[in-house]
Structure formats: structure tokens, C-alpha cells
UniProtKB/TrEMBL annotation:
Disordered: annotated segments: 1-48
Upper lineage: Eukaryota, Fungi, Dikarya, Ascomycota, Pezizomycotina
Protein name in UniProt: DNA-directed RNA polymerase RBP11-like dimerisation domain-containing protein
Family: Belongs to the archaeal Rpo11/eukaryotic RPB11/RPC19 RNA polymerase subunit family.
InterPro entries membership: RBP11 (IPR037685), RBP11-like (IPR036603), RBP11-like_dimer (IPR009025), RNA_pol_Rpb11_13-16kDa_CS (IPR008193), Rpo11-like (IPR022905)
Cellular localization per UniProt: Nucleus
GO terms of biological process kind: transcription by RNA polymerase II
Organism from which the protein derives: Cryoendolithus antarcticus
An MF annotation (GO) of this entry: protein dimerization activity
Domain of life where this protein originates: Eukaryota
Keyword annotations: DNA-directed RNA polymerase, Nucleus, Transcription
Length: 201
């Protein structure tokens, strides 16, 4: 640098102005705010879904209320198909039996393609039976329609037999409920079609 050329004076500006600026820029205003760079945008395929960030391509969702708007949805996920919740696979049994050797008169039953609906019905029915000392169930994973039911009896009846007996009682109760509901529903339809509810004035 030539010693004869004077250095450009630098002046410190207030904190909000962004530090040092050239005194000869912006018409000689030493307190002018320097232009800021625009923030760099993330690539279009980088989207945040829920509580995690992943590289997911932006695709158009055809189920978005029939609109032409674009909606960012993941192109892949680990949610099983709906039919897998009730259709048995190849070589898959509806109920699997396993004896519990650590506890006397106890067994564990695995129900495939069933959920809390049947599990709660069976547990409540078995809980009210005198021969049952313990009954409980658990769902190993919320994405798969499977639950495990554990039963312990007093020894007068096996867990398999008491489960069979409870299932028969539930079937009879549900059949009675279906008949009563159908009867009341038909009566309501007849009453709705008759003027003044069938009462003469």
C-alpha cells in the first residue's frame, strides 16, 4: 500500500447500526446501516414434519379436500395399511396359546388382528367369574392390532376352558343386545311413519 494514499477513515457506529462502516458510503453518513444479506433458504425438499426434521420431497396430496393447493406430506412412513388391522396373514392364527410355567394354573393368549375392544370385553367378563384369580392384558405395540391376555385360575378349571366359557357368555349377551336394539329401532321407525305417534285425537 502506498504511504502517500490516506487510509479510509473508519468510525464505530452505535450497536444497532451493525459495527464499522465506511465513512464515505451513503453520502458520507458514518452511522448508515450496512446492507444485510438475505438469509439462505433451506432446500425445498427439506421439510419439518411433527417433532423431527427429515429430507422429504414436496408432493401434492390428492386428498387435500379436492383443492389444487400443495401440501407437504411425507413420501414414506412406517404406518401399516388399514387392512392389516383385521386380515390375518398367511400361516397366522387368530389365537395363540402359551402356558406360563412361573405361575400355577396360568396361561397367556395372544389375539392377532384384535384390539382394545375385544380385550376389554374379555377382561371384564373374566374378572367377574369366581374361578379366575387374575386377568389382564397388554398391547405390545400401538401400531399393530395384537394384544396378549393372561389368565390365572384357582385350579378348578383350566385357563383355556374359562376363556372358552367367557367367550360363549359374551356371544349370548351380544346376540341379546342385537335383538333388543333391532326391535327398538324398528318400533321407532313405525312410530315415525304414523301420524301423531299412532294416537287418535
Amino acid at each position: 500500500m502506498d504511504s502517500s494514499t490516506p487510509a479510509t477513515p473508519q468510525k464505530r457506529t452505535p450497536k444497532h447500526a451493525g459495527g464499522l462502516v465506511n465513512a464515505n458510503e451513503d453520502g458520507g453518513n458514518p452511522y448508515a446501516t450496512p446492507p444485510r444479506k438475505s438469509p439462505t433458504k433451506k432446500p425445498a425438499e427439506f421439510q419439518v414434519h411433527g417433532s423431527y426434521a427429515s429430507r422429504v420431497p414436496a408432493v401434492r396430496d390428492p386428498k387435500f379436500h379436492g383443492s389444487t393447493e400443495s401440501k407437504q406430506v411425507p413420501a414414506y412412513n412406517n404406518v401399516p395399511d388399514r387392512f392389516e388391522l383385521f386380515v390375518l396373514g398367511e400361516d397366522e392364527k387368530k389365537i395363540e396359546y402359551k402356558a406360563v410355567t412361573q405361575i400355577a394354573n396360568a396361561a397367556e393368549f395372544t389375539f392377532n388382528k384384535e384390539d382394545h375392544t375385544l380385550a376389554n370385553l374379555l377382561r371384564d367378563k373374566l374378572f367377574r367369574m369366581d374361578q379366575v384369580q387374575f386377568v389382564g392384558y397388554k398391547v405390545p405395540h400401538p401400531l399393530f392390532a395384537t394384544f396378549e391376555l393372561r389368565i390365572q385360575t384357582d385350579g378348578t378349571i383350566s385357563p383355556k376352558d374359562v376363556l372358552y366359557k367367557a367367550s360363549e357368555e359374551l356371544i349370548r349377551e351380544l346376540a341379546t343386545l342385537d335383538q333388543e336394539f333391532t326391535k327398538e329401532f324398528e318400533l321407532k321407525k313405525l312410530a315415525a311413519n304414523v301420524p301423531n305417534g299412532g294416537m287418535e285425537i
